[in-house]
């Protein structure tokens, strides 16, 4: 598979070119941002519980590190490939630049279905993957974090493996670790909490009263659940949620505590009581005020975009709207909160974790959440101002806001060798 094979990579390149044209970006800087700095593909062989050996494909892509060390999650997913990983790394470059972090964009992972692997097999996979990419990562080089299919336990295994290779504990090699290993308060819920904050900011721009709003969330994982809980606390009614088993709808509002308990017990939402089962496609087209696609990319596209009715679309996932869909829903009047802003809470608090670890001084949860809100509020206003200045949608404005910082940094650092 080549770098430009996935639709997400093509969409990311298109968004880059579109934003570059609007602000007349230096063509030399555009050329540097088109391709990743480094793309690594590795074999990850492990011994399965039955004694056989299976080899998985692993990836780590570092897109641009002009602003600082690479930063980006590790994804365990059956559809992961080099092209998709490269696209996600590019989005991380834009995300870190947009919210003002001294970090570059990276992404990685292994092509696998973690649901099919035992705990021991997942540990072996994580450790072998770390071993294979170890020469290219480090606290001052590239700092992984959790993503789809990985969690704090994955980061603990990864951190331990890297530390064993180097002969001493190096907790700063990853973020999203358990608290006892140097993790940060608030990291687990930070992405979803950031989504809810951005929905608050957007609702004020369009005079939407969140206390009277109806929200549909495509997904019910580690991003969707904290977002749903925070929005409910603000008075919103969560009328639909979904996962790979389908969509689940209740016009009077879903009992989130029951849904969370059900998933803990049964892993999936299937069988949840007091809801109507609908398709995920129908969920995306519900007549709601806020739609939060929080699962996978490309779920809103040219085929269904005209049927999306939400006033606010908060891109909690990476690239849930294709370029065609972005144009259609914007033309139809929807307010888009772009993914590189909407789901930036995770990388912001990962940055906090990295800083706290370097200082060996850790912050209270209220401090973490206050700093997160401050950064997102400033970044949101910057994107909104660019959308008004250039008369464009928020998704285009988000990339422009990122490019404005990247252009200045690249100019100042120059090109080596010259």
Molecular structure report:
- The protein has 418 residues and is α/β, with parallel strands linked by helices.
- Helix content is 45%, strand content 17%.
- It has 14 helices and twelve strands.
- It has helices spanning 7-23, 27-33, 82-98, 119-133, 152-166, 190-205, 224-233, 256-266, 280-284, 323-331, 339-342, 345-359, 365-390, 394-413; strands spanning 38-47, 53-64, 70-77, 104-111, 142-146, 214-218, 237-243, 246-249, 276-278, 290-293, 312-314, 335-337.
- The strands form two sheets. The chain has a seven-stranded mixed β-sheet with strand order 9-8-7-6-10-11-12, with helices on both faces.
- Strand 3, helix 3 (82-98) and strand 4 form a beta-alpha-beta unit.
- Helix 1 (7-23) packs across helix 14 (394-413), helix 6 (190-205) packs across helix 7 (224-233) and helix 12 crosses helix 13 (365-390).
- The longest helix has 26 residues, at 365-390.
- The two termini are 32 Å apart.
- The mean pLDDT is 96.
Radius of gyration: 20 Å
Distance between the termini: 32 Å
The main sheet comes to:
7 strands, mixed
Mean pLDDT: 96
Low-confidence stretches: none
Record field, number of beta strands:
12
> What share of residues is helical?
40-55%
Structural class: alpha/beta
Salient structural properties:
45% helix, single chain, 5-stranded mixed sheet, 418 residues, alpha/beta
């Amino acid at each position: 598979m080549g770098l430009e094979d996935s639709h997400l990579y093509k969409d990311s390149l298109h968004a880059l070119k579109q934003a570059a044209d609007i602000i007349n970006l230096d063509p030399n800087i555009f050329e540097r941002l088109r391709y990743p700095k480094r793309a690594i593909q590795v074999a990850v062989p492990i011994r399965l519980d039955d004694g056989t050996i299976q080899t998985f494909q692993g990836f780590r892509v570092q897109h641009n590190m002009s602003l600082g060390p690479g930063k980006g999650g590790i994804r365990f997913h059956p559809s992961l490939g080099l092209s998709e990983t490269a696209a996600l790394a590019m989005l991380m470059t834009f995300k870190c630049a947009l919210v003002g972090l001294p970090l570059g964009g990276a992404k990685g992972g292994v092509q696998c279905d973690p649901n099919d692997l035992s705990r021991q097999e997942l540990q072996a996979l994580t450790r072998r993957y770390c071993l294979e990419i170890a020469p290219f990562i480090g606290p001052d080089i590239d700092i992984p974090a959790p993503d789809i299919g990985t969690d704090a336990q994955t980061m603990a295994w990864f951190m331990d493996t890297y530390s064993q290779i180097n002969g001493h504990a190096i907790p700063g090699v990853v973020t999203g670790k358990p608290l006892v290993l140097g993790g940060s308060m608030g990291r687990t819920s930070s992405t979803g909490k950031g989504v809810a904050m951005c929905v608050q900011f957007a609702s004020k721009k369009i005079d939407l009263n969140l206390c009277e709003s109806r929200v549909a969330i495509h997904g019910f994982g580690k991003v969707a659940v904290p977002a749903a809980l925070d929005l409910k606390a603000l008075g919103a009614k969560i009328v639909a949620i979904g996962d790979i088993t389908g969509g689940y709808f209740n016009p009077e509002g879903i009992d989130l505590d029951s849904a969370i308990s059900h998933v803990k017990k049964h892993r999936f939402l299937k069988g949840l009581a007091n809801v109507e089962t609908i398709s995920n496609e129908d969920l995306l087209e519900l007549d709601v005020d806020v739609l939060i696609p929080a699962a996978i990319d490309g779920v809103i596209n040219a085929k269904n975009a005209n049927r999306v009715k939400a006033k606010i679309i908060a891109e909690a996932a990476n690239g849930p709207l294709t370029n065609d869909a972005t144009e259609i829903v914007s033309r139809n009047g929807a307010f888009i909160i772009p993914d590189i802003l909407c789901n930036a809470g995770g990388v912001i608090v990962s940055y906090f974790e990295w800083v706290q670890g370097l200082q060996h001084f850790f912050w209270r949860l209220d401090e973490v959440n206050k700093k997160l809100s401050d950064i997102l509020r400033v970044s949101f206003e910057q994107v909104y101002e660019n959308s008004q200045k250039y008369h464009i949608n928020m998704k285009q404005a988000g990339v422009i806001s990122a490019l404005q910082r990247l252009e200045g940094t690249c100019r100042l650092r120059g090109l080596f060798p010259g």
